[in-house]
Amino acid sequence: MTTLHPVIERVTERIRTRSAESRSIYLNLIRDQKPESFARKRLSEGNQAHASAGCAVMDKVQLLGASWPNIGIVTAYNDMLSAHQPYETYPQVIRQAARDVQATAQVAGGVPAMCDGVTQGQDGMELSLFSRDVIAMAAGIALSHDTFDAAMYLGVCDKIVPGLVIAALRFGWLPAVFVPAGPMPSGLPNPEKARIRQEFAQGKVGRDELLRAESESYHAPGTCTFYGTANSNQMVMEMMGLHLPGSAFVPPGTGLREALTKEATRKAASLTIAGEYLPVGEMIDERSIVNAVVGLMATGGSTNLVLHLVAMAAACGVDLTPEDMAEISHATPLLCRIYPNSAADVNHFHAAGGMGFLIRELIKGGLIHAEAQTITGTLADQSKEPFLAADGQIDWQEPPAESGEEDILRPIDNPFQKDGGLRLIEGGLGESVSKVSAVKPEHRVVEADIRVFDDQESVKTAYKNGELNKDVIVVVRFQGPGANGMPELHSLTPILGSLQDQGFKVALVTDGRMSGASGKIPNAIHLSPEAARGGPIARLRDGDRVRLDTEQGSLDLLKTGDVFEDREPAVFRPNLHSVGLGREMFGPMRHEASDASKGATFFTFPGMQKA
């Protein structure tokens, strides 16, 4: 057996020690809920009648007789968003698959599923991050009927999966199986899409050409194919063992996709007290969380997961920090290049060997806990690849011995770079993070005078006026969770990329987020403390000299025209950002949300400070 890497072992033990009290409180909480029999037996006759009144007769007989386990389905289905449109038919498939193994299944409830691709650069983006916690609460309401013996979660995209995981872990006495929908077919190559976006920002092409390119990129049911937050979520679900092996990137609308959904249903039924009871809150532990972090770093995944993994871990009493993730990143080699880190998309990654190959190589390198529990056994069992056999069943096979394309996926002894590319950035302006895996080495250090903006529209105006045609560090403040909900600033990527391509040294510093699809611009994001809560970023002024070194992990104020500490901080004007498009309903969340380093959540978990 391969020896665990000493850094992974040390960080895991540190997390375990730090989390001892909160993890104990959590385990006691879910063990108090451990079922002695089927959940609905705890209900009165009237409760049971209400819970089964709308069912098919064949299911109602079993629900009232309490002879089969009952699976609750929590779905993020809607037919506007491509990633979730395939879920429309899943409940019907799941119900029949459950009957085939003497179980019942009911849609317990739906959760909202908003798309950052639709709201990018729009006011609705200010609700995006908080939708994660709303999803967790909505899933909690769905499961609060307490008639379920296991749960299946149907979700893919940015905030949906983290929200569902938080809910699943708060109902940790229930077995949980996550069911993906798969990516859409590859469309317009990602570099071509990025080129047209930049040309539009420069005024070289019109809206008709931009709309054509966007429509050719996002063109069918399924997940967007670039390696942003949605597909990073899917990778994390496999690394945590909440998916069937190799199921994340199987396309929708195929025989294999349907067979995997049926098999996921059988697995959920088998994990109830009618089979080999495996509560998800005991299955997921410190090792599972570390495995997810390693997977994120090895694939160059989305920085949004830095926020989400902290909140997900806290939901089961595990205290994870950005420092832990940065240390893991330093020890984890980059084994994948997927857009925005190359021209390849997740379909190409899957064809080159996909998750099975990746997990096997990480085990070989001693970088993950192979013995961590999963819904199929251990993580070592997760390195399998599903194929559809002639009889319609799934044929599980070992991953290929060699990568199908080493420009996309590499073995552990030939990585793209020695570390995962996530940097913890520290200095006098606070703590932030940066992903450098897609940033060329010559762009990773920027020293320049700054331009300070309080919103992203002002950045775009300054660009159009030619005010940014120079070496510049763009500072965008009042974008944190306590200000306007911490929106992504991905709509700035084309203009910053255009400046960089013109030969200027450019960087972004913000207390907001960037998209999981953003890559080539050096940045310091998630800056804490944020400007709205008195962080040093609120004292910055145009012309201050700043140095961002994403290699060494430092952000330093070099020169000002006065005494920095004597400056009055800029004041956030909440009335400008808190009304319209439902934003006024989220005021309490902005007020209560924790800093980015604690997951930017407004939940408080037992035994832990606000995580």
TrEMBL record:
<keyword id="KW-0411">Iron-sulfur</keyword>
<keyword id="KW-0456">Lyase</keyword>
<comment type="function">
    <text>Catalyzes the dehydration of 6-phospho-D-gluconate to 2-dehydro-3-deoxy-6-phospho-D-gluconate.</text>
</comment>
<dbReference type="InterPro" id="IPR037237">
    <property type="entry name" value="IlvD/EDD_N"/>
</dbReference>
<dbReference type="InterPro" id="IPR056740">
    <property type="entry name" value="ILV_EDD_C"/>
</dbReference>
<keyword id="KW-0119">Carbohydrate metabolism</keyword>
<dbReference type="InterPro" id="IPR004786">
    <property type="entry name" value="6-phosphgluc_deHydtase"/>
</dbReference>
<dbReference type="GO" id="GO:0004456">
    <property type="term" value="F:phosphogluconate dehydratase activity"/>
</dbReference>
<protein>
    <recommendedName>
        <fullName>Phosphogluconate dehydratase</fullName>
        <ecNumber>4.2.1.12</ecNumber>
    </recommendedName>
</protein>
<feature type="domain" description="Dihydroxy-acid/6-phosphogluconate dehydratase C-terminal">
    <location>
        <begin position="407"/>
        <end position="600"/>
    </location>
</feature>
<comment type="similarity">
    <text>Belongs to the IlvD/Edd family.</text>
</comment>
<keyword id="KW-0408">Iron</keyword>
<dbReference type="Pfam" id="PF24877">
    <property type="entry name" value="ILV_EDD_C"/>
</dbReference>
<dbReference type="InterPro" id="IPR042096">
    <property type="entry name" value="Dihydro-acid_dehy_C"/>
</dbReference>
<feature type="binding site">
    <location>
        <position position="157"/>
    </location>
    <ligand>
        <name>[4Fe-4S] cluster</name>
    </ligand>
</feature>
<feature type="binding site">
    <location>
        <position position="224"/>
    </location>
    <ligand>
        <name>[4Fe-4S] cluster</name>
    </ligand>
</feature>
<keyword id="KW-0479">Metal-binding</keyword>
<dbReference type="InterPro" id="IPR020558">
    <property type="entry name" value="DiOHA_6PGluconate_deHydtase_CS"/>
</dbReference>
<comment type="pathway">
    <text>Carbohydrate metabolism; Entner-Doudoroff pathway.</text>
</comment>
<keyword id="KW-0004">4Fe-4S</keyword>
<dbReference type="Pfam" id="PF00920">
    <property type="entry name" value="ILVD_EDD_N"/>
</dbReference>
<dbReference type="InterPro" id="IPR000581">
    <property type="entry name" value="ILV_EDD_N"/>
</dbReference>
<keyword id="KW-0311">Gluconate utilization</keyword>
<feature type="domain" description="Dihydroxy-acid/6-phosphogluconate dehydratase N-terminal">
    <location>
        <begin position="69"/>
        <end position="378"/>
    </location>
</feature>
